[in-house]
Structures are given as structure tokens and as C-alpha cells.
């Protein structure tokens, strides 16, 4: 009989860990989809991204509010970043706190991207933004400097 109690506790603990995960992944077809599904309203997708943003992938942690976002833009497109953003050298990047198959590593980003730091993020030391205009791809993340 005791083994049923242990099995039940393991099941409850396992399910609780899955159901109470603090890290959530989302994807959106475009900014309209992100708005409709609450990604923008909940603050996980910044409103200042270009209207043409598409193929959005996002992961965030609800405990520390750190996040990682990857998306596509129109080739050659630029858009105004928020006030206070500045161009930075790759050596100034903070590490990504998430690893996802859809997001290149910082080492991969360093090969073809231009980098910016925007201090006005919901958590961490601001947004770190990597833009590859030729491939029309953007990766951005929040992090704490180590």
C-alpha cells in the first residue's frame, strides 16, 4: 500500500512541476496575431517593433521577467528604436539566459549582426538587440550583467 502513496506523490509532484513552470514559450504569425493573443497587451512583445514584424518566437520567465525574442522583418528595413538605445560592440553583450533551437547563440550572432543596447526593458539591464538586415532577422533579449 505504501508504494501507491509514493507513486501518487511522484505523479502529483511531476505534474505540478509541469503545470507550474515559470518559463513560457509563445509564437505569433505577426504583430496583429501577437496583439490578438495578448503578447503585446501582457508586455511580452514590445509595441515598438515594426508593424511588418512576422514569424515571432518568444520565451520569458514570469518570475524574473527575462526574455528572448526572435523575429523576421522586411529585408533592409530599419525602424526607430526606443529613446536611449545605442550601438554597442559584440564584446558588450550580456549573455542570453535562454537557449532555444529557433534562436542563434551569441557566437553565431556575432558573425553577421549589428548590436544595440536599450536600457528601457521590463527587466534586467535592458534589451540587447541583434539585427541582421541582409537576412531580415532580429534577436533580442533581456539579461542581467554578470
Could you characterize what this model shows?
The protein has 146 residues and is an alpha+beta fold. The protein has one domain (22-142). The chain is built from three helices and seven strands; from the N terminus they run H-E-H-E-E-E-H-E-E-E. It has helices spanning 2-19, 31-36, 106-109; strands at 23-30, 54-61, 67-72, 86-88, 114-118, 127-132, 137-142. It has a seven-stranded antiparallel beta sheet with strand order 1-2-3-7-6-5-4. The longest helix is centred in the N-terminal third of the chain and has 18 residues, at 2-19. The radius of gyration is 18 Å and the shape is globular.
What is the topological layout?
Layout: H1 2-19, E1 23-30, H2 31-36, E2 54-61, E3 67-72, E4 86-88, H3 106-109, E5 114-118, E6 127-132, E7 137-142
Antiparallel strand pairs: 1-2, 2-3, 3-7, 4-5, 5-6, 6-7
Q: What composes the largest sheet? A: 7 strands, antiparallel
Helical amount: 10-25%
Q: Total number of helical segments? A: 3
Strand content: 25-35%
Quaternary status: single chain
Kindly report how far apart the N and C termini lie: 50 Å
Anisotropy-based shape: globular
Radius of gyration: 18 Å
Please tell me the total number of domains. Answer: 1
Give the mean pLDDT: 84
Pattern of helices and strands = HEHEEEHEEE
Structural class: alpha+beta
* Strand elements, count: 7
Report strand order across the widest sheet.
1-2-3-7-6-5-4
Low-confidence stretches: 7-19
